[in-house]
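thread: overnight batch results

M.L. [08:02]
morning all. the overnight job finished for the chain we discussed friday. pasting input first so we're all looking at the same thing
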Amino acid sequence: MNFYQKILLCAILLLACWIRMQGVSRLPHGQFTSNDAYLFAGQAQEIAERGVLPARDMRRWLPHGRDNGQLFPLYAYAIAYTHKTIGWVSPKLTLYHIQVYASAICFTLGLGVVCFFLARVYGVVFAAIVALLLATLPGSIERSAAGFGDRDAWCWMLGIFAVTSYLYKESIEPGRRRWIATALAGFTVFLGGLSWEGFGFFALMIVGVKLWKFCTTDTEQQLKAYLLWMLMFVPWLYLISPAYRSGYGFSTHVAALVLLPPLTVFALYGIRYLLLKSIEQLRPHSQKLAWGLTLLGIAAGIGYIFMQSGTFAETAYPFRESELMQNVGELADPNFSYWTGRYGAVFVLGSLGLITACLHLWKWKGLPLALSLSLFVGTTFFRTQVNGWIGVDTCNALFFISLGLTGLSIGIACLRKEVAKDELVTLATLAWFLLWVGLSRGGKRHDFFIGLPLAYGTAWLLWFSPVHLI
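M.L. [08:03]
and the structure it wrote out:
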């Protein structure tokens, strides 16, 4: 990138931050625009006064109080210690001011990493399209605006750091810089794991990329680097947070989501390495062996889901069936007008762009993936119309079928021997799209995280498709 291109990207980042700062002056002092922000404000105040959170929060869930060991309070710690670090700049700067502006600043930092990463991979024009969309889409603004005060933008930023840093280290030649980048990528997952119980979905994207490489390579390349990445967060999360050792309530499955998938992939690599080393006849069939082991790992994961299916509804939203919880707007299922109001036509363009990217990268082997993605999009974004045609139960069944077919279709695309340089980026974006759009289908609160894959797909459609056709 030259100087003027960097100026262009920086201008877009300033625009994104400026948009999110609007209206903060009209916010009454001490007030936020979200309910959960007050919980983190109280935690930050306790941390500022005591240095740490107490074992139990005696202001909630009386008479016994709420167990703070089951929380993920890194966001509150970040607010408190940021104030301690820069509070000397102005005596008038309070914890409240830090939290009010935290959402906008975190989102802008994450967007900056996305900009410069995509500019490095695809070029400045592609990165500028993605950045402009993320800067201006209403669905990306609400939970990242100044005054919101919740941890959504903080978790989004850490998710961006975790995924892009891992993809960046994959493009670096082996050496000292690659080791440092690997350690930083793992450390970012560690921070995210202490911030939110749902952060494991970002780690799953990285695990998916590693599984792709496992099935498309003949040897255990860079296994030591993967071990370093894993050691940066797996043992420390288990030792530091009680939620990973004995989670209950909202934290029941957090260890299975964050810690088990990376350990499973490492075990698959280790088993293949031992088998190939001890049985010479298997060496010509290393990729077939990888496929077999991957299917076993996936079957184990599906088995865990079925075994624990009875606890998911209780741990996700314990009282969702009550009249009170049914009136909570962010837990409602989004309809078609919701998508158009939040993302305009971008949710259609972005979906078409991701489908086009699959066909562009994997040619005819990407056709099954394009068809399964089309079914996924139809049963999610156009769910209202499809429900009217075939009924709610049939639509839900087709949605889950589309998820299974998409996983199988990605496996078919794996069989292509030629590897494109941007293949891993598209794979990670597809994983991001499937996970967060699938979750948003059952709750509006998660749609904040779907802006990135939609913007990425739209950039594909607007930039690469015309070039390809010409």
